[in-house]
Amino acid sequence: MGFDGEEDSIEEIVAEQTFAITFDASARCLRVPAKVRLVAVYTIDGQLVGIGAPQADGTFSVESLPVGVYAAMATDGASRAALKFIIR
User: Fold this and answer.
1) pTM (2 decimals)?
2) How many CB atoms lie within 10 A of CB 74?
3) 47 or 9: which carries more pLDDT confidence?
4) In angstroms, how far is the first alpha carbon of the chain from the final one?
């Protein structure tokens, strides 16, 4: 309920995730389907630490990142996917 006693009318829109991002800890890379155009990696507090197109084999290196918790976002232009991952 809102402050005036009426129902709130905020709608939450959740995009359907049509593909997945995976983290390959042994190769220190993210793996995405071939259709993905852009991958962005953020620290857990929201700082952008990597952005770019994945390699032709669908990998995006996170080899240079230090130990920590990260979030990855990827898009194919029509939809997007997200993943939280840990580098140990």
Assistant:
1) 0.80
2) 24
3) 47
4) 44
